[in-house]
Every structure is written in C-alpha cells, then in structure tokens.
Amino acid sequence: MKFVDILYEKADNIAWVTINRPEVYNATRGRTTDEMSIALEDAELDDSIRVVVISGTGPNAFCAGRDQSEDRLTDDYHGTATLDYTTLIKEMPKPVIAMVDGFAIGSGNILAYQCDFTVASTRSKFGQTGPRVGSPASGYGVGYLSEVVGNKRAKEIWMLSQQYTAEQAFNMGLVNSVVPAEKLKDEVVRYCNLIKNNSPVILELEKITFHEIAGYTEDLPSPTERYMSNYDESDEAEERRLAFIERRPINPDKNLPFLHVKRKQRLGEME
Q: Are 62 and 104 in contact (CB under 8 A)?
C-alpha cells in the first residue's frame, strides 16, 4: 500500500512509523489513523520485528492531536479502521517507543504515553486540550494516565489544559528519557538495542501483565456515549473547535449546562 500520511520502514529488526504531516504539526485525520493501524498490524505480524518506534516528521511536533479542520462527524476525522492504533499499541506483543521531538498535544500526548517507552527531546512539550477545544475523551486513554503519573497529576493534565516541558514531563513520570534533539534518535536506538537483547516472549508476557493491571477502565462504557452521544453536534463543540482554529477566546454563552449525572443517578432520575 502507498501511504500518504505516514512513512513506514523496517530495518535492523525495528519498525519505524512516522506521522508525515508536518504542515499541520503532524495532526492526525482519519486517513492518518487508518494508515497507522495498517503499519502497526504489519509490524505485529512480522516476526523479524522486535520493537516499534513511532515519531513525527520535522522538528516542530511529534503529533499535535486531531486535525480540528476536519468534520468531527465524518470518517475524515475518525477513520474507518476496525482496530484503532491505540488498541494495536496496547495489544502489540512487542515494545513500542514514542520518539517525541516537539509538541505532543491532545491525542498526540495520549499516543506518547500509551507507548511502552517515551523518549523526548529537550524542546518537546506535552499536554491535553480536550476540555478547551470541545473534544471529549474517556475510557482507557484517560484512565491509563493515572497509572503513568498518578491520579492527581492525571487530573491536572486532563482538566487544566496546560502544557509541560520535557523536563516537567520527565519529573512526573510521563517520559522515560530526555536528551538534546541531535541525540534523540541515538537514544531511541539505544533503547531498541537493549530491547533486542531480551527474550521476545518474556517481554510480551510482561507487557500483557502490565496492561491487565491497568485494564479495569478498558471495558467501561464511554461517559460521552452514555450521557451525551450528540456532544459533537452541539453548539459548544462547534464554538470551541472554531475558537481553536481562529485563535480567539471562547464565547462562554455557548457552554452547555452541567448534566448532574451522579445527582440524577442518586435520585433515580437517570434512565
């Protein structure tokens, strides 16, 4: 298959998957996620591959999240792959390394911390934007961050929509190693070589064990789907998307009211 949004190569028992949309800070669209899924499935099935590295083209961004110029209600935004790439990373029997140079924001940050290892350049920045740009997230992708940095830090990252330097990310456990940009690939290759020295089957079993410990959130239904499946069609979602694109303040009058889900459950008012 000819890829458009990613680069994919295999060498020295390493599969390199590179998001190749530098003109939009490697923000992903549906095609990007579909192509990443195809590449990751190929890497999983190729027994010569011992480790997978995910990166982004250029010095500005690893991945700046979802491309907010795409229509959120279409496959152009979400893609059509049966298995999304985050599931494939989690279920991959081989270690996956995020090689982060530049911004890892929104779903780009999720991608980075869901990898088994995260190696970053000193100029990298990490953070979530969902509550600010009207892009809800839930389930394993959110809950797993608590396993990475602890509950308090995870809530801070998800609820405050701030950005963190590579050093801050390292200190909170979001990143394994931080090096100057010119040494980033060498550091990633060092990790790859250490991995290749170890038993593939034992690494696979260890990875399964770690994810079984953290997997209690995986099967929980998405709160967005349970309580507000039409959020993406709301005025708030559109206002926050446009404000982000237009680099302007958000009109607070567009904010939706609280759902008071837990109170209604307590009072027996939820269906």
A: yes
